[in-house]
Fold this protein.
Amino acid sequence: MTNPHENYQELVEEEDNLINRIETCKETIDAVLQTLYDKDGPVHVQTVRDILSAMHEVQVKLERELLIVQANKKLMARHMDHKPSQFT
């Protein structure tokens, strides 16, 4: 049988990892936007939009995963505090 405290710690680590990955997405998007501003020559705007859109989709996917991890973490904490957990 698994230890609830170990499970909770795993969720904390997963949450930290996802937060780090989301921050990396934001920084990378900002870098692309800054490069777009700094570029002296012509830019293929649709390509830049496609790249930014793909990067943003990754960020949104990670944010969705983070939300689920945070919900699971709260439910685990509730269980560890011996609160009723009769959900439908």
User: Anything to note?
Assistant: Residues 2 and 59 are 32 Å apart (CA to CA). The chain has a mean pLDDT of 92.
